[in-house]
Specification:
Blueprint: H1 2-51, H2 53-56, E1 76-81, E2 88-94, E3 101-105, H3 116-122, E4 127-131, H4 150-163, E5 169-174, H5 176-187, E6 192-198, H6 203-210, H7 214-219, H8 221-225, H9 231-249, H10 264-274, H11 281-287, E7 305-310, H12 319-323, E8 332-337, H13 344-347, H14 349-361
Parallel strand pairs: 3-4, 3-5, 5-6, 6-7, 7-8
Antiparallel strand pairs: 1-2, 2-4
Length: 368
């Protein structure tokens, strides 16, 4: 009798043991790589202090925003307080009220200003809204790390649509905003008429690929480094936010390899926003919850989708773009732009805008 019961329970016990071992290996890898990344950054800090301690801890006080952040051609600064969380969100809106909504979700380390070219371009036919996500810019930043879980961010977008008086929108997301855009299309497909994602694969593709390909694991080292408390924020501030400037201007990762270059005023806009007291903690908290949220249980996308990808992306392997196709059960179009960086909508705005216009004006058929 005991042997018979053991045989009956053996598959369940095996499945549970296998799951426990996988979870142990997963979290060992996450925190082990987190420690490695932290060690590398600590060595960088010590090297910087050794070369010039005064310069390492130098930080300019930026009290007034650069003029480009108040450029009237970009739209109007607005605020909305949503019911579910009670948080106040900042956004910039262009185009007449009542026109179809085109909602723009930025990545990291960005804010609404990364959509300046699209705010000007699409306002002729859309109400264009470039949002500061939870914790970014002038949007409220809850203090608790758990407030930045992906399900909270998804509900934010749903509630913002309702607060703006819309039941659906064209949704465009870049980088981390692309991750959120995928999740909105998966969880609330009725809200999204068309989906445009820039330089971010389907979340499940990202999760599966990162642990199977060392090249992507290295490129995504910041995801693991950001699991550390306070130290990532501190590393961004040294040498007057040199790391932040480097992301947008270096030969390997920066904007302007081909197409538009980031002006000094544009760069100062980013540094101004993220140099404000506590301005980095909210954005980095988004990443501190990611490993507990992925992979997704539900992953099918039934919304017509355009995926745009800069081939010279220093943070994402281009191979993930093509694999994303298998998760989209509707019209799917992938366009890879050569010589373009991770910051695609700023790097090649004219081409990106043209591709988005073409996609928006098409009549889609399922399973194309």
């Amino acid at each position: 009798m005991a042997m018979a019961r053991l045989r009956d329970y053996w598959p369940l016990l095996t499945a549970r043991l296998t799951g426990a071992v996988r979870a142990l290996l997963f979290w060992t890898l996450v925190y082990g790589y987190c420690g490695l990344c932290a060690s590398i950054h600590l060595l960088k800090l010590l090297w910087s202090i050794g070369r010039g301690p005064g310069q390492t801890f130098q930080r300019l006080v930026r009290e007034n925003p650069p003029a480009c952040l108040n450029d009237p051609s970009l739209g109007t600064h607005c605020y909305v307080r949503i019911k579910d969380s009670g948080l106040r969100f900042h956004y910039v809106a262009a185009g007449e009220r009542g026109k179809p909504l085109l909602l723009l979700l930025h990545g990291f380390p960005e804010f609404w200003y990364s959509w300046r070219y699209q705010l000007r371009e699409f306002k002729s036919e859309y109400r264009v809204v470039a949002l500061d996500l939870r914790g970014y810019g002038e949007t409220d930043a809850p203090s608790h790390q758990e407030s930045y879980k992906l399900d909270c961010i998804v509900v934010d977008i749903k509630d913002i649509l309702d607060s703006l008086g819309y039941s659906k929108c064209v949704l465009i997301g870049h980088d981390w905003g692309g991750m959120i855009a995928w999740l909105i299309a998966i969880c609330y497909p009725e809200l999204v008429t068309k989906l445009v994602v820039i330089n971010f694969p389907h979340p499940n593709v990202f999760t599966e690929y990162i642990f199977r390909h060392p090249s992507q694991l290295i490129k995504s080292g910041y995801y693991f480094f950001f699991q550390m408390p306070w130290f990532p924020e501190f590393m961004f501030t040294i040498n007057d936010f040199k790391a932040l400037k480097h992301l947008f201007t270096s030969q390997r990762t920066g904007i302007g390899k081909k197409g538009c270059k980031l002006t000094l005023e544009d760069l100062e806009a980013y540094v101004y926003v993220f140099s404000q007291p506590g301005a980095l903690t909210g954005p980095i908290n988004h990443f501190r919850n990611i490993f507990s949220c992925l992979p997704l249980k539900y992953h099918k996308v039934t919304t017509p989708t355009l995926l745009l990808w800069g081939e010279r992306d220093a943070f994402m392997d281009v191979e993930m773009a093509e694999v994303t196709r298998i998760y989209v059960k509707s019209h799917f179009r992938l366009t890879i732009l050569s010589e373009a960086s991770h910051w695609l909508q700023q790097d090649q705005p004219d081409i990106v805008n043209k591709l988005i216009w073409t996609f928006l004006k098409e009549n889609m058929r399922k399973n194309e």
